[in-house]
Amino acid sequence: MSGGGPAGDVLLDVRAVRRAFADDRAVDGIDLTVRSGEIHAIVGLNGAGKSTLMRLALGMLRPAAGSVHLRLPGTDAVEAWHAPAEVWAAVGHLVETPFAYPELTVTEMVVAAARLRGMPASAAVPAARRVVEALELQRWAHRGTGTLSMGNRQRLGLACAAVHAPRLLVLDEPSTALDPAGVVLVRAWLRRTRDAGSGVLVSSHHLDEVARTADRITVLHRGRVVGGLAPEGVDLERQFFAMVHAADAAAACDASTGSGA
Ligand SMILES: Nc1ncnc2c1ncn2[C@@H]1O[C@H](COP(=O)(O)OP(=O)(O)OP(=O)(O)O)[C@@H](O)[C@H]1O
Questions:
Q1: How much distance in Å is there from the Cα of 172 to the middle of ligand 1?
Q2: Domain shared by 152 and 174, yes or no
Q3: What ipTM score was computed for the predicted complex, to two decimals?
Q4: Residue 88 and residue 72: Cα distance in Å, rounded?
Q5: Most CB contacts within 10 A, which of 46, 126, 148, 251?
Q6: How far apart are CA 163 and CA 121, in angstroms?
């Protein structure tokens, strides 16, 4: 457990959501919430459905069934697929390869991201400076984004996702390209973001890192929630594989008896 205070209101409310690609049930009836003041991690094997779930949460994909509601302070609850710009102004995300205009410097890119989220220039410039410092990008602040290493490009993507201090942050494997110092830095930064009252949905393959960062851990497998892990628990890897194997065994049993959905 990462030591955060009690979680608050539900910001993201996913209910019985389904989405397939042809006959591939990428997300197959998932319920999930993210509350303010918590880091909720989703873990799963390759192809478990983590990115698809995040894209549904961000209105990038339309659910085939079920619902995804955003309940951000100061706005009415709204389906992600139909959410207006003022709702997205309170959300930050990094779910694809971090995008950056190569002709801009790091600072210019972060300011541009803030402006795209509706921040006035007078607020965007100091906000960009703060997040560049928080993610220790100062050394590259005036370098062209096209010259960055992969890890620094990932930090830049995080800076762009968070420059407008979103209430909800959705991050798909935010530490993949980071060195050990960067992993520690981003962990501490995520905790501060959480402690400031934001809700964070984060995916990862790395159980050790997730256990150090998250308040809640949900295990996805083959598009379904197959269990939860307590971050302070022991031997999470063994528990994780036990859940995955139990789900596979149940699916095989259903298939052999013809009772699968
Ligand atoms: N655009 C797409 N078109 C077709 N199939 C897709 C598409 N996006 C995802 N899928 C399929 O949906 C399933 C879930 O994929 P998803 O990317 O959500 O998994 P993931 O848990 O994020 O995996 P990884 O850990 O490898 O990133 C996979 O079988 C994948 O091949």
A1: 12
A2: no
A3: 0.97
A4: 9
A5: 148
A6: 12
> Tokens 């298939």, residue?
255
pTM for the structure as a whole: 0.93
Q: Which two tokens stand for residue 209?
A: 């890192």
Q: Which tokens sit at 96?
A: 């694809």
Q: How far is the CA of 108 from the centre of ligand 1 (A)?
A: 33
The residue nearest atom 13 of ligand 1, judged by CA position, is: 26
Residue nearest ligand 1's atom 6 by CA:
21
Q: Report the separation in Å between the CA atom of 16 and the middle of ligand 1, taken as the mean of its atom positions.
A: 18
Q: Are residues 217 and 257 in the same domain?
A: yes
Q: What is the CATH number of the domain that holds 257?
A: 3.40.50.300
Mean pLDDT by 10 residues, the chain (261 residues): 67 97 94 97 95 96 96 88 89 87 94 93 96 96 94 95 96 92 94 95 92 96 96 92 93 75 52
Largest CA distance in the chain: 65
Q: CB neighbours of 253 closer than 8 A, spacing ≥ 6? A: none
52 ligand 1 Cβ < 6 A: yes
Domain that holds residue 219: 1-90+169-191+198-261
226: phi then psi, degrees, rounded to nearest 5: -110, 5
Looking at the structure, tell me whether residues 123 and 69 fall in a common domain.
Answer: no
